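User: Sequence in, structure out. Go.
Assistant: Echoing your sequence, followed by the structure tokens.
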Amino acid sequence: MVLPPCFPTVPSSTDDVATILFKSDSGELLGMNGILISNNPRLMIKNPHSFELAIKLIELSDEGQYECRTDQIINYIVHLIVINSSTIHLNALEGSNITLQCSENGMWTIEENHQGGAVRKQYTTELVLNNLQRNDNRFQKIICSTLDRHEKREYIIDIMYKPTVKLMMSIRQKLMCIICAHPLPHRIHWWWNTRKGRNDNIQQTKINQSCIAQQSIFILEKEYDIEQIIICEAENVHGIGRDTLQLKERKTT
């Protein structure tokens, strides 16, 4: 972080102008007569002639009020607040409940849309979210921050769910199986009561981060005199999902 330049209010030589940058709460002198000085090795000047104060690797102890004075006149005061910021990733199963804890002097900020939408604030120590859903629009961004602004925690909740499967047949009599799961399934299986599908008979396309589509590249080669049952089944760590398609028996004359 670089504090704003500290320039004299009136043209003057360096000898006539006393430029001072210091922290008022600690009283530590950082600069005098255009030359910044400090016992703190993390406080460095970017350019000896620009009167800029650069603070590298900011710590909590750097928080405070910084003043810039020329000819005993205060040009500006900078209030530096150091925030301890963190991001917490949580996994939760669809349909489950979750309780988040904030500090006693904390405040919850819940944004319903990242791009700008409804923003709710709750001055409670706990935030309870019931019946979590994969496309939950009650929250997109959850932040717990202390009222003194010293601490800020952002929660990212990843909703996990078992596969949902939709099996259908196109007008060209090709089979399409759409699978949505989080995480994506580690096993997908096709089954016919007339024959078994093989991996080399299937084309797979990724729709998005949570959905894929598999399509059989062969057309049903012949008519069977029994009702055909086709099953598409997918499995991930949270369970199994399947869908069944029944082809009616063709009547021959």
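User: And one key feature?
Assistant: The CA atoms of residues 114 and 131 lie 21 Å apart.
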